[in-house]
Prior knowledge:
- There is one protein chain.
- The chain is mostly beta strands and 260 residues long.
- It folds into two domains: 2-168, no CATH class; 175-242, no CATH class.
- 9% of the residues lie in helices and 44% in strands.
- It contains two helices and 18 strands.
- Strands 1, 2, 3, 4, 5, 6 and 7 form a seven-stranded mixed sheet that branches. Strands 12, 13, 14, 15, 16 and 17 form a six-stranded mixed sheet that branches. Strands 11-10-9-8-18 form a five-stranded antiparallel sheet.
- Helix 1 crosses helix 2 (72-86).
- It is elongated and about 80 Å long.
Amino acid sequence: MSQKLNTATAVLTTALTLLYSGSAVASDNKITNIKVDGDTVYFSTSHAKSHTLPNCVASANNQQWTLSLKSAAGKASYTLLVAAMTDNRSISVTSANDCANSTGYERAQSVEVGDTIANTTRGSSGQLSLYKWDGVTKVGTIFEIDRSSNPRRYWVLANEDDASLIDIKPHENLRSGEAFFTEPDCRGEVYTQGANSSPGYFGGRLLEIVGEYTFITTSSVLGTSGVCKNRANRNGYLKAKIATNPHPICGFGPCKIKSR
């Protein structure tokens, strides 16, 4: 049975944070209708389609698009549609050139609002996923990376059972650098360089500061890639240790991005 769109306020709030202006979006092409029927989303826009329609499209449906709620990416695209309609934002749609979601209706390959794109073919087997430091525990599927943000911001679908994208900066307020050891082969007491006493990722591990700034000679250094080198170095350091409490997102080391 067909039902009109009724989306939770929390999902709308999450989606609205994704929308920002960009030149890639067709000017004034607004969503005019959204309908959900089972696992399929049907929607239309104010601009008539200008491309050649797939042969499978019925003439009565030539201005309609579909998304599938069976995939994580389809759910993310649906969230963007809801937010775009709510905020009266322009939208751009790319065709998948088939009617795989519903007979007679053209399937949308991707939906773009501003610079935010949800590719409906990624799903739970998406190109990139964010993992905790162990590389095993998945934080979520990455749908957008804001490279202009420092540290980088990720739009992640953490729960594939709903359409909520979360905005996270996993390395915010954390320094990164090398870890220095008092003994060869990265053994003994560990120190971080400089006088900044904030915690951070040093040598690929989350370290917290436990001592005062001091000048000493260290014997080895552990790089951010995890490679240990025996090298004497005299400098100003802060004594550190492995953090007692894990970072809430990444754990005891920096998050990892993996392709699937």
